[in-house]
Model the fold of this input.
Amino acid sequence: MSVAFGLDFAGYSSGKTGLACAEQVEPDRIDITVLTGHIFTHKRKGRTVLASVVEQERNLLRQCAWQGPVMIDLPLDLEALPRPVDTTFAWELTQRPVDYALNAMPPLANLIGAPVARLLHLLRDLPDTWIGSRLFETYPACSLDLLGLRGRGYKSGTGVQMAWQAGAWHGTDRAAVMADNANRLGWLADDGLTLNDDEFDAALCALTGIAAIDCQLRGERLDAEITRRICARIPPAYHQNYHAPPSFMLLEKLPAARVYLQKRPVSQFFSPH
Done:
């Protein structure tokens, strides 16, 4: 049985990190379990002493990575940042080529700087070899775009959810966009199940990790797509080949399987050691 995890990582102050596990339980069925009550959702203040907190977080990340690949919705490899060399464009000061090509938020500015700092601190005492072998970077919004869905406008904020009722996902306001995406993805659930946008992203990250290689955009094909997108936006005199980090992948085709979603407390999901 194949297993992959998805981690939609947020900063300490928000408590909005989503965690999910995708399991290929049958050739034509994938179960995605959204895990609740995990340590990543705990809010922390700036005066929090991190030593014991971070070790608990690393232990949970280890538990996931020992079972299968973990797909994380944040940069794992900042490449030349924060001190790029031979820069030509302003975007190169705050974005990697993959960020600029995919219209992703800058790792060193805007809204994700705090989550990036949190994640890099978390990874500090994990083996470097895990990046690209156990830990991978993905970008759910771009995967939705590649699948012909709406990669923008579905992030709803705290407390806004979609719900599965009478054979379909339903939501209001921005959750309606998320619900429409879930319906078009073909995701199924039991009546009454609710998901917020962080849990939705975590589920999509996990699905990306468990999908077959021919469903993923990665490696040379991803590099070619990034180069095409960047070169379409800059003068020809500056055209060159661009590359994504080796650990980066996207979902560009849905697996040929039914996908069922459920929720479960993390304390019931992992067997105690």
